[in-house]
C-alpha cells in the first residue's frame, strides 16, 4: 500500500509542473533567416514584435515579421499589436533618456531646493532635503527626506535646525568625523543663491 501511495504521489508531482514547449519549432542544427544563419538555435522567449533565441555565437532577437508565415501564425503575430508594443518600448526609452538628461543638467547647472541643517561643520553644513507640504512652498512647513549630505557654504551663518533655500551643484564626496569618531563619506554639493529663512 505504501508503494502505491508513493507512486501516485510521484505521478501527481510530475503532472503538477508540466513542461511547456516553445510555441514554434526551430531547426536544431542551423537556421537561416533574412540571410543570417544561426548555428544550434534554441528558442528563449517571444514578445508581440520579436522572438529571442540562443545560438552558437550568442543571443539574437529576430522580428516575427521576418519569420515564415506558419511561424507567424503559431506566434499569433498581429502587425498592429507589434507596432503598439514597439511604440510603448520607444516611449519608455525616451522617458529614461529624458530622465538621464535631466540628471545631467542638474549635475551641471544645479537644482533649487529647501534644506534643513542637521550639523554645522568647518567648511559647510550637513543637511537633509526638505519636502514642503503640498500647497505651501517655502513656508517653513515640511518634512526632512532622504539621506544626509554636505553643502559647502559659509557655515558661520548657520545653526542647527536652520532652514534655507539654495541652488545646489553636485561636486563629488565629502568626508567628516561624526560624534562617535567614525569617518563618514556623504555626497558633496556647492551652494548658490542661498536664502536663509527667518525663524
Characterize the structure shown:
This protein is α+β, with helices and mostly antiparallel strands and 199 residues long. Helices cover 26% and strands 42% of the residues. A five-stranded mixed beta barrel has the order 6-7-8-10-9. Strands 3-4-5 form a three-stranded antiparallel beta sheet, with no helix packed on it. Strand 3 and strand 4 (50-55) form a beta hairpin.
Main attributes of the structure:
3 helices, five-stranded mixed β-barrel, OB fold (Dihydrolipoamide Acetyltransferase, E2P), SH3 type barrels, three-stranded antiparallel β-sheet, 199 residues, 26% helix, disordered N terminus, 10 strands, alpha+beta, 2 domains
| Model regions low in confidence, pLDDT < 50 over at least 5 residues | 1-19, 135-140
What's the Cα radius of gyration?
A: 30 Å
CATH architecture of the largest domain: Beta Barrel
Secondary-structure class: alpha+beta
Largest sheet: 5 strands, mixed, barrel
Q: How much is the average pLDDT?
A: 80
**Strand order in the sheet with the most strands:** 6-7-8-10-9
Amino acid at each position: 500500500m505504501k508503494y502505491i501511495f508513493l507512486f501516485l504521489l510521484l505521478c501527481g508531482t510530475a503532472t503538477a509542473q508540466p513542461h511547456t514547449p516553445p510555441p514554434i519549432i526551430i531547426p536544431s542544427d542551423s537556421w537561416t533567416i533574412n540571410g543570417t544563419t544561426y548555428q544550434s538555435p534554441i528558442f528563449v522567449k517571444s514578445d508581440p514584435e520579436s522572438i529571442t533565441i540562443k545560438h552558437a555565437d550568442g543571443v539574437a532577437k529576430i522580428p516575427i515579421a521576418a519569420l515564415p508565415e506558419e511561424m507567424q501564425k503559431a506566434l499569433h503575430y498581429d502587425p498592429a499589436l507589434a507596432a503598439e508594443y514597439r511604440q510603448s518600448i520607444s516611449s519608455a526609452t525616451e522617458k529614461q533618456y529624458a530622465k538621464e538628461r535631466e540628471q545631467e543638467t542638474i549635475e551641471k547647472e544645479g537644482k533649487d531646493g529647501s534644506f534643513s541643517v542637521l550639523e554645522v561643520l568647518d567648511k559647510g553644513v550637513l543637511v537633509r532635503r526638505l519636502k514642503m507640504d503640498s500647497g505651501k512652498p517655502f513656508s517653513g512647513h515640511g518634512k526632512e527626506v532622504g539621506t544626509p549630505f554636505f553643502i559647502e557654504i559659509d557655515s558661520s551663518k548657520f545653526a542647527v535646525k536652520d532652514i534655507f533655500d539654495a541652488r545646489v551643484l553636485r561636486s563629488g564626496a565629502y568626508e567628516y568625523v561624526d560624534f562617535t569618531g567614525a569617518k563618514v563619506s556623504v555626497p558633496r554639493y556647492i551652494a548658490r543663491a542661498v536664502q536663509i529663512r527667518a525663524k
